[in-house]
Amino acid sequence: MSSKNRLWREIPGYVFVALARRGMEKIPLDQCFLPGCDNNDINELEPFDIEEHDDDEKNIKIIKIKCHKCQGIFQFKLETLKKVAKKVGDSEEKPLSMGIAYALDEKGKNLGHIGYF
Ligand SMILES: [Zn+2]
User: Fold this and answer.
1) What distance in angstroms lies between residue 21's CA and the mean position of ligand 1's atoms?
2) For the chain, which terminus, N or C, has the lower number of CB atoms within 10 Å?
3) Residue 51: which residues within 8 A CB-CB, separation 6 or more?
């Protein structure tokens, strides 16, 4: 398996965005998030680098993607918050996690919060 496929496995297939009055929308992440580019062909997107940090509260992954349509590079910043549910009665504590996805440009400038996974 190529490293390209391995990196796609680190990226959620889609995230959820809350819409004001229409519930939740699913946003696929196999698209280019650079302004002015409408590439949504996974074959034209190439994840090529990953950085990962971990601490007690969250796990952060930054994945760089090359877009072969606009020739730009953008990054996904995936923050997974680790939480522990409160004990209910005698039941065991279950770890919960919630993730937030951001898009960054090549230099790390935030292009915006994409959604939750
Ligand atoms: Zn692009």
Assistant:
1) 30
2) N
3) 61, 62
Residue 70 pLDDT > 60: yes
**Distance of CA 65 from the midpoint of ligand 1 (Å):** 9
Where in the chain are the domains? 3-116
Widest CA span in the chain: 55
Q: How far is the CA of 98 from the centre of ligand 1 (A)?
A: 28
Query: What separation in Å is there between the alpha carbon of 74 and the centre of ligand 1?
Result: 8
pLDDT at 61 over 90: yes
Q: In the numeric block, which tokens belong to residue 37? A: 């580019």
pLDDT value at residue 84: 58
For ligand 1, the distance from its centroid to the CA atom of residue 69, given in whole angstroms, is: 5
User: Given this model, what pLDDT does residue 21 score?
Assistant: 85
- Residue 107 Cα to ligand 1 middle (Å): 15
